[in-house]
């Protein structure tokens, strides 16, 4: 009397492996071992990490003076790409990044040469930042808003000058001093100062 047993996939696989020549099995085991060594070799990751740290360290030393210059004036901060990024990050914590975004949009707008693009860009900037109830409305007075609205009828590269100047003054007098006192900037200046001292001690 025969006993019926359901077919087992694992059993079929084992039988299939057993039927393979011994050399194939040995090669498969060797390949698995090599892959395991490559994946878990600590010195490979260490080398990559060390390399990136060295590159970062070099960039940090170069930017140390730049970080300290940001406190000299608001102009120095706006001239620095890293400074603008750091200031923008700070403004996000105060939910007022639209002021800087508007200022940057105006700077980009001034570089536009095509009259057609100038008009379309002017309308986009006005609708996003300047008009009443704009999605990212900047804090400017009603008179400046109206002057800017009239300027759109014959858009030139100067049509946002007054609104941009008001927004800049607001950031310089209000947000910029708080940025300099913020924990994030204080940490950056400490690191920059310590890197400067360390650099001098090694020369």
TrEMBL record:
Membrane topology per record: Lipid-anchor
GO MF, one example: GTPase activator activity
Name of the featured protein: Regulator of G-protein signaling 16
Pfam families, A to Z: RGS (PF00615)
Signal sequence extent: 1-19
Top-rank lineage group of the source organism: Eukaryota
A GO biological-process term: negative regulation of signal transduction
CC annotations in GO: membrane
Keyword set includes Signal: yes
């Amino acid at each position: 009397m025969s006993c019926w047993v359901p077919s087992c996939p694992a059993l079929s696989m084992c039988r299939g492996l057993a039927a393979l020549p011994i050399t194939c099995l040995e090669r498969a085991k060797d390949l698995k071992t090599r892959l395991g060594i490559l994946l878990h070799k600590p010195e490979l990751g260490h080398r990559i990490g060390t390399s990136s740290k060295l590159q970062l360290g070099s960039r940090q030393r170069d930017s140390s003076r730049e970080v300290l210059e940001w406190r000299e004036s608001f102009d120095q901060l706006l001239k620095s790409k890293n400074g603008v990024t750091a200031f923008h990050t700070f403004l996000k914590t105060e939910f007022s990044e639209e002021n800087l975004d508007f200022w940057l949009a105006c700077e980009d707008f001034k570089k536009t040469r095509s009259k057609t693009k100038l008009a379309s860009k002017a309308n986009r900037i006005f609708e996003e930042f300047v008009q009443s109830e704009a999605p990212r409305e900047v804090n400017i007075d009603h008179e400046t808003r109206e002057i800017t609205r009239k300027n759109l009828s014959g858009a030139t590269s100067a049509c946002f000058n007054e609104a941009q100047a008001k927004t800049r003054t607001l950031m310089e007098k209000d947000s910029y001093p708080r940025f300099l006192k913020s924990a994030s900037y204080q940490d950056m200046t400490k690191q920059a100062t310590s890197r400067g001292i360390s650099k001098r001690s090694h020369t």
